[in-house]
Structures are given as structure tokens and as C-alpha cells.
Amino acid sequence: MKNIVTYAVNLLLCMLLIIGIFSCLISSFEINANIFVITVCTALFCCVYGLLSVFVKKQKKFFVSLCVLALVFALIMILSLGNFLAELSYVLTKLFSKYSVYMPVADSITIGTKSATNATAFFVFLSAVFSGLFTVSLIRYHKIFIIIPLSVLSLIPCFLLVNTLPNLSALILVITILLTLYITSALRRHNEKQSGAATLIAAIITGILLMIILMLNPVKDYKRFEWQETLLKSLPNISMNRDGQIGADIPSELEKEQDLNNVQSTVRTHDKVMEVSADNESGLLYLKGVAYANYNNNKWQILTDSQLKLYPQSINAFTITQSILSNTEYLSKVSIKTVGGEPVLYTPMYITDTSDNMDIIGDVCISNDSKQKSYEFMHNKNTNSLYGLHLVSSQSYVDFVYDNYLQIPNRTMTDLYSIALKNDLTDIDKKEIPNAVKNFVSSRAAYSLDVDTLPNDKDFPVWFLNECDTGYCVHYATAATLMLRTLGVPARYVTGYYAYLNEEGTVSVSSDNAHAWVEYFDDDIGWVTLECTPSSFLNEQIPSATERQTIAPSTQSPTTVTQASTSPNNNGKSKNTSSSIAIIGVALICLLIALSIALIFIRRNLILNKSKNRLQNATNNQTVIILYRKLMRLSDHSHLVIDDDITRICNKAKFSHHIITDEEVQTVRKYAENSFSEFSNNLSPIKKLYFKIIAVL
Question: What is the rounded distance in angstroms from the CA atom of residue 244 to the CA atom of residue 256?
Fold first, then answer.
């Protein structure tokens, strides 16, 4: 077999490309599969298709061979159809579960009668298909018109997920191979012999360049680009009959958005809102109105319609952490009488039940469509009594929380992580993070209703933590919520009222008691209140958390991106470090380019020296044969038709026992020199450089 190097390189690229694509899919969708088995099968399939592509020259025989292989694979699949359908169901369930935030899909997809928890056989079948397409295209036809589109289409789902990035090693491998195949496609068509070595060199150089780029731009946490978010929002909302789903109609008067750009100094108005009384309870009581999930462009927004459609229909998040104690010592009945019909029912934490006529909107709020002015809830007044009871038994709701309450814009995440790193918040136990964040945020500024207005082009939480001297609940709650998310703790921004119950358990609540606070998610007991506003707010009777204006409803989702942007850092040492890394990166790239150029010229000199030595030590017959082969190479790249006299001399040297004379050698040599000279004169400078340096023609 000729061109063994080219064959081996192409075979290796096909195998690695397929394994890389499958690894990206498996890691992105968290699919359980044996990658070793898949790798071995892929290598075997590629070898079989590769050998057929090389040795079966006739097109009809080659087509028949492919049909026989396809028939064998089809028979195997039919014999194991039950397992195949089960694994297909498993893969589809895994795939659609990642899109569940945007598309209302079933919790599981059943196609066959069996269930599976592993997709190895499914990927082996895919490997047989991919191996045939990739190997035949590259080795037999030297084309990439199937390879690149199919690879890109296979990778697209990996970049439309919630917060998941494919395995970086596999992703870099796939990108390296695709770029290499594209760069060397012309050489592969015109000079198959040299394409193998050139492709291998190009792959190594491209891989190193991508690694350097990754080192200079490390990916800490993957977030979607804005175009990905826009694309997902444009997907049709597939309607499914989900009877009994919690969360349907959102009241139009509900404040779906809290715009932090409008936060400014405020004054007390003393407008009465409600009367609150509680049995056997005194002290601070939080009455939750609305929970906000999405943060972007200095605005808090509730869950979007598409997010609410994926809320677990069987879960009531307001009672998920209800008290299960037989002892009623910690239970208290809270009665609320409002002055007007508020758009939502205000609820204390850890209520034990909700009535059937309450319209619960996901875990956002309880809508007050009927404009009730008087209602009551039974709740657990002691949070500490819930710890260790493992009340959160619904994994579907836990998954929903982690999918929706960790989202944060990239710029905000990067700057807050820098602040957390500087203040030793990154290397502590997860259970200790909420208290550490509370202590840090509450000490950053003095509590006051007299605050500065957010400057243009500033990110609210970063601006507050770095530059502000004063702030009130909105500032502390926003900064703490996003800092918790940055550190991996699900959290949300909550607005409502605080009520400080007297010894009789009663209090009159006014607009001055409007408040904003943080709720973080504990995997055992659910949402936990975290008060990060300094305690002095209790003595100030603070007004509305934000300017109580009528804000147009918005369903805009937060815009997130995949990599941390290099925003300015306030730490001079970090700036110097970043500059040093950049200088080192540029130096490495320059060194790599220089090394690549040196390797190209070393290769050229080796080829020329080898050719020169062969001619010097060759007999007349061998010299004519060598020159004729060079002319044949030239004819592959030009319209040269070798003269019949030259062909006759070559055939005489190759197939007869006659000794070629010096005159005949000179004739062939002169003809070759003239042909190469004429070919070179008709080339453009760029092509001339290519054939001289790369093709070594």
C-alpha cells in the first residue's frame, strides 16, 4: 500500500474526531456510557472502512461491500432492538432534560418496553455510521464536505444547554481536527503523498495554539452567549397537557421586574398596609411577597414563562419545608388583614399548608386574584428545628433550583469572584458560605436611606461593594444574592414586608416596613432566609425596597455568556499578573510560529538533500526514472502533457535491459528543467512560494 503515512494519519484523525464528538455529547448531557468500549469499536470500524476504501478499487465492488456491512449492522440492531430502543429512550430523556428550562418536555421518554441507564450500545451504533461516513469521505474521496457539517451539527446541542460545557479536552481535540482538515483540504486533493505529513504538522501546531488560547482565557464557569439565549427563546413553546401544574396565570399588576437603575434616596410615608397577628410568637417576622430569579442589566425579574412551564408540577415550594414534627411547640398561626386587595398573598416562611383556592405561581408567589383582604397561614416559627430532618425529598425541584437560581451574568460573576477571592470567601465549606457572605456584605457600607444613584455603565452589586459608603436593603440583598450564586450557592432576591411582633404577637405594618432580603437554598430544608442588611434597619422603619412605580411587565431572560470577561481589576497585583501572563502568551505564540517555520524549512531541506543524493548516486536508468516521476508529479499540478519521446526513454529505462546513454539522460534532464521553469513562471507569488516551500516541487 502506497502512502502509508497519509493513510495512517487520516485514519487516526477520523477515529479521534468521532471519539471527541461523542465525548462532548456524553459530558454535556451527563450520559452514562463506557467510553473505552466506544473507542475500541470506533477504531475497529475505522480500520475496516479504511481498508475497504484503499484496497477495493472498483466502485461497484466497494458499494457492494458497504451494503454487506450495513446489512450486518442492521441485523445486529434488529436482534437487540429492545436494548437499542431502551438506550435511545435514555439518551433522549437526558438530552431533553437539559432543555427543560426552555421547552416543556416530559420527565422521561419511553420508546421501547425496557428501560436503560447506559448508552454504550447506542453510541457504538452511531460510531459505525460516523466511521463509515468520515473514513470513506476522507480516505477514498479526499473530501470533507460531509465531515465538517456533520461534526458541527453534532456539537451544536452541546452549546445550547443551561450551564454546561462539553469536556474541554474533547472539545479542543474536535476543533483542532476540523481546523486541520479544512486547512489541508487543498493539499490533500492535489498532493496525496505529502498531505499526511503536512496534516500531522498542521494538527500539532493548531492544537498547541488552541491550548495557549485556552490558557490565556481560562473557562471558570460556562454561561450561554447572548445569541444562544436569543435562539432558545425563539424555539416554539411546545404545549403539553400537564394537568394540575402549579403556576399558570401571572397577574398583570404583579411587579415582574425590579429595576435597580432607579434606586435612589427615599423617605418614609407611614402608609398603613396591613395588620398582622400571630399566636404564641413575637419578634421579627418576614412576610414574603415575590421571589425574583433572573438578574441582568441591573434588573431583577421573576421566572420567565418558559421557565415556569418546566416547574415540577407536583411540587408546592411554599410547603416543601413544612414542619413534620409531632410536637406543635414550634407551630404558629399568622393572621393577616390588609387595607387593600394586594396582588399577592404575603406568606411567612415554612407554612404547613395552602388552601385549594390559592393560585400558586411556581415558587415565585401566591397570586391574590380574588383580592382577599384577610387570610391566615400556619407556619414553623423556628428554623433551627428543621435542620437535620432532610425535608427536601423532591429531586426534581432540587434540579429546578440549581438550573434557575445559579444564573448570573458573566461580567458580574467575574467581578464578584475577584472580590470574594480578595476577601477570603472562596476557600470555605459550602455550609459556611451563607454566614460568611452575610457578615462580609453587611459590613461593606453603613445603612442609610440617603444613597447615591447608580452611575451609567456600572454593575449594581459590584458598584455597591467597591464604591458605596451607604446603602439600604436593596443594595445588601442584591449584592449578597449574587455573591452566593458566584460561590455556587443557589439564592434569590425576595421582596415583601418585615413585621416586628410585640409580646402580644401583633403589629401594624406600614409602607415603611417594605423590605428586600435573601433566600438561599439548603439541600436539606429548602429555602432559608438570610438577612444581610445591618440590624440598624429595624430602628429606621425603612420604606419601599424600590421606588413603588408601575413597571411594565417583562419576560426577558438573563443574558449569560460562556467565558469570564477580562474586566478591570482593582487589585494592582492582579493587573500585573494579567499583563505578565499576556506577555508570556505572546512570547509563546511567537516562539511557536518561529518553530513551525523552522520545521517547514528543515523538512524542505531534507527532501531536497534526499533527492540530490539519489540523483548523484543513481545510474543513467535510475536517473531517467527519478526525473520522469518528478514530471509526473508536475503533471498532477499543471496541464503538462509529457512528450512521447521522453515517455519512450523512461519506458526503455524501466522495462528493458538496455543501458540509457548520456545523451538520453541529458535530453530528459533538459526537458524536465524547461518544464519546471515554465510552470514556475506562470505561477502567482503565493502559489510559487507554496510549491517551493510546502509541496517542494
Answer: 23
